[in-house]
Structure formats: C-alpha cells, structure tokens
Amino acid sequence: MALFKRLTETQRPALAFTLDGQPATGLLGDTLLTAVLTCAEHVRGSDFSAERRAGFCLMGACQDCWVRLGDGRRVRACSTLLEAGQAISRDPGRQP
Amino acid sequence: MKPVVIVGAGPAGIRAARTLLDHGIRPCLIDENLRAGGQIYRRQPENFQRSAKQLYGFEAGKALAVHHTMDELARLIDYRPHTLVWNAEDGRLDLLDNGRAESIEYSRLIVATGATDRILPVTGWTLPGVYSLGAAQIALKYQGCAIGERVAFCGSGPLLYLVAYQYAQAGAKVVAVLDSAPFSAQCRALPALLRQPLTLAKGMYYRAWLSAHGIPVHQGATLRQIDGDQRVHGIRWGEQTLECDAVAFAHALRSETQLADLLGCEFAWSSLNRAWLPQRDSAGRSSVEAVYLAGDGAGIMGAEAAQMAGECAALALLEDAGSTVDQRRREALQKQLARIRGFRQGLETAFPFPEHWAAQAPDELMLCRCEEVSVGAVRAVVDEGHWEVNRVKAHCRVGMGRCQGRMCGLAVAEIVAERSGRRIDQVGRLRGQAPIKPLPFGVEVQP
C-alpha cells in the first residue's frame, strides 16, 4: 500500500530501485521519500520504540526520514533525489 | 580575501546576493536545498512540466522573478546548493556538501535561514500520514503528490486555507478544514489586515472557494486527536470524528534561529512571534559585528518582506564596508517593511495562538518525537522544581534529539511555563548546539 498519492507529473521516466531488497519503481525527479511512500507506508522506525515513521516536515528540518543507501550512505529521504538502481533500506528502529 | 557569505537562498538571500553583486561584491551563497528559491517559491525538479501559474497561483509572477534573478546570479556568484551549514564559530562556517566536510571563513555574513512550521503536538502526530502544513504543500508543489487519499487540514494561520485550496485545486480529496481560530477573531483583525488589501483578498478568496466547492470549513475547531494504528484512520475534535488517511497541521510559522544563536547573536522576546528572536536594528544588523539578519529567520513577515529585508541587510553591509548606498532607497524599503509589520499584527489577531494548548495537553501525549518524551515526563521534571527549558532538557532529554528541538521546542516551553506557573517569556530559550543537524559517520574532510 502507498501513503502518498500521485496527482500529476506522472509522465516522467520510470526508475527501478529496491526497497529493503524488494524491487520497486519510482519516477525521475522523485525524492527518495516520494519513491518509498508511493509504494509503502513508512520510511523508518523510531529510535526508542521502533514506531513507524514516514517523515514529517519534508524540508530537511525534522530529521524523521533518514534512510540507508546501498553504498553505505545515510541520507534524508526528503532532500535526496532517487537514482536508478539505488538500494534503499529502512532502519527498523530500536525496541524499548 | 575572505568572501561575504549569505546563508539561505530564499527570497531574502537571493535579493541580498543581487544587491551585493550590483555594488561590485561577489558573494558566496550557501543553500541547503537542491534548487534555490526557499520554501514558498520552492522550485520543482527540472524535468517537471507544470507552469508557474499552476504551482504558485497568484504568486506566480513574484516566484518567476525570484527564479529569474537566481538563474542570472548562479553564473556570477559562488553559489553552493545542497550544502548544510552545521556550525558557526570564530568567523568560520562548517559545511557539509554531499558527505564532504569543509569550512569557509567570511568577512561579513548575512543569515537568511527562513522558517519552518510552528507545531503544537497532538495525540497521534507521529503516525505515518501526519505532516506539517508546509510539508503537505511541498509534497504537492515539489513532487506532484498528495500526502494521502483523503486529507484533513488543521491548525491555523494563512497557510491553512492556502494549502487546502491548492490540494482541492489539484484534484485531491480535502475532507475538512479545521481552523482553531474563531470567526470572531478574524472579524476583529480586519482593520489591521486592510493595510494589505490584496493579501487579505487572496486569503478570503481561498476560504470562499473552499466553501463554494462543498469542502467543510470548521472555525473554532481544535484538533484533539489523530486516530490510527500503523497509519492515520481519522481525526477527532470537540465531540466530532471524521475518517481520513492523512492530516496536515500547524499553527503558522516559526523562525529558524539556531545559526544566529551559534554566532552569538543576542536574542530578545518577541510577543508578536511568541518566540525568542535574534535582535537586529532596522537595517538588519545583528548584535554581532559583521553579522546581518534578514527574512523569516529573524521574525515571520513573509516572502515579500523577506526580499526587502534582504536588500536592506545588503545595503547596511555595503555601507559598513565603506560603500556609498542610496539612502532614499533604504528609507523607502524600511517604510514598506513597517507597513507589512502592521499587517502581521493583524494576522496574529486573526489566527491567535491557542494559549489553552498546554493546559489541555494530556500527560501521555508524545511531545518530543525524536527522543520520544511525553508531556507527562516533562511535567514530572517541572514538578521537581525545574522551570528553565535547558535544565528540563538536561533532565529528560526533551528537545535533545535529531531535530534539536526544531519541532517540539516551542511546545516544550509552553508546557514548562504552564506547569511552573510562569509566563512563556520567563522559562528561557533552548540553546542551539552544534551540529545543528545530524552529521553522518565517515564524513570526508577537505584539507
């Protein structure tokens, strides 16, 4: 299921990526957050209770959308553009 | 020679850069975003097709003018997009550019760091599907997406009606608008709002358009709870409930002041903004030599005022650096800024801060979404005798997490003030700490 709904700008070229190892598709010009939330319902687990989070401010301030990339980088999903072939993984967070 | 540096490429920073360049100074303009424009005039990625009219509505002309200026400047100045300033000390800024760390020394500095949404947490606000009003607007403007299938817009402030209108226009299902301000407050504000009749008319237009299109607008309606398990299922206010799968909420905007704080600027309480703000003279000089402040980062006045303040700050900088500047131009700008300040007063009357929020917040409400600290945990610290926000933070980690209190800090102060029986301006202000945003491990350092 998806959280975000695409309303417009849907004619862009598709980009394949993986989310937690599963194949997924986004569009050229998507942020990682858009790419993930148009095919899933969260981007990370919270640090102290593994509660599901899906970002909040979308402008790089709240820090609640960090994801990990296949090359080891950790980035804010809201301010990083999707590239073809990226392996995005979601941090499950920590249980209390 | 050390450059003049501007932090923030929104309306204030861009105008400041233009003004400096016109006077023969080639500044370095540092911006955290991938593309310049700031938030209100945020640009979509280059391969998107929508027109400026579709993206910015009534503001299309102004947005295009800002973008055009920036396109010209980008070739002529040292423009550094996608670059985070995470620390400032001793005339030097520490930067992070795509995982690479470096420092830059400045001769003079203009801080134009803008604003974020002002958030008063509500039960369920960390659920997937809950976003700030600004975030909802960015999803649409920058990505062509709605934050859900059935969206409720809550809180107050001019952005509330604007974003709800933009969503409905773009074909999203807007299930309701909940404005915590009563209609009577908006009537009381009319005299002051008439100082900018065009802006007032636009606000009234959005409101009327929503009603005319059958979208329920509830005034004096305070969002009490967001229900859901793994994601949003509905909202509650008063005795009413409504099903939806996404919520956007905020109570106007807050200035982003952490960099000014690290620079050592003196702060003063602003009752208009209900916040501590870095002090500046009418031209934009801060209390720190060679540091200037412009735009919403030094007090919320909107994009148009930000441009004027950016030009004022640049003119003050030029004058301090020994250049001759046009005094009449400066006086005209300051006169216009004063008029906007009067309008801003009216907005505060129309969308008053919900002062009862702290008293009504339940103990189990999660206040700090990073460290996951509840309202009750903060109250317990206050009950032990602590009433200064930094002390409270030290005791229970509230505001200490990844976001450094950007999301919860103002709400924490409200809770501490209410519980300790002090006025909101008597509980101190959360100090900024470097790094103001998280740094990943393994940062590559440029020699």
TrEMBL record, chain A:
Cite the entry's keywords alphabetically: Oxidoreductase
Any one GO MF term held by the record is: glycine dehydrogenase (cyanide-forming) activity
Q: Does the keyword Endoplasmic reticulum apply?
A: no
Entries under SUPFAM superfamilies matching the protein: 2Fe-2S ferredoxin-like
Does the record carry Ubl conjugation as a key word?
A: no
Using the UniProt record, name the top-level EC class of this enzyme in a single word: oxidoreductase
Q: What is its EC number?
A: 1.4.99.5
Say which domain of life the source belongs to: Bacteria
Q: Please name the Gene3D superfamilies in this protein's record.
A: 2Fe-2S iron-sulphur cluster binding domain, sarcosine oxidase, alpha subunit, N-terminal domain
Record-linked InterPro entries? 2Fe-2S-bd_N, 2Fe-2S_ferredoxin-like_sf
Q: What is this protein called?
A: HcnA protein
Automatic annotation (TrEMBL), chain B:
Could you tell me which SUPFAM superfamilies the record lists for this protein? FAD/NAD(P)-binding domain
Recorded source organism is Pseudomonas libanensis
UniProt keyword annotations, A-Z: Oxidoreductase
Q: Which domain of life is it from?
A: Bacteria
GO MF = oxidoreductase activity
| Listed Pfam families | Pyr_redox_2, SO_alpha_A3
The reply to whether Oxidoreductase figures as a keyword in the UniProt entry is yes
Q: What name appears for this protein in its UniProt entry?
A: (2Fe-2S)-binding protein
Q: Which residues form the SoxA A3 domain?
A: 371-443
Looking up PANTHER family in the UniProt record yields:
ANAEROBIC GLYCEROL-3-PHOSPHATE DEHYDROGENASE SUBUNIT B
Cross-referenced InterPro entries: BFD-like_2Fe2S-bd_dom_sf, FAD/NAD-bd_sf, FAD/NAD-binding_dom, Metab_Enz_Cyan_OpOx_G3PDH, Opine_Oxase_asu/HCN_bsu, SoxA_A3
The FAD/NAD(P)-binding domain extends over: 3-310
Q: The organism's lineage? A: Bacteria, Pseudomonadati, Pseudomonadota, Gammaproteobacteria, Pseudomonadales
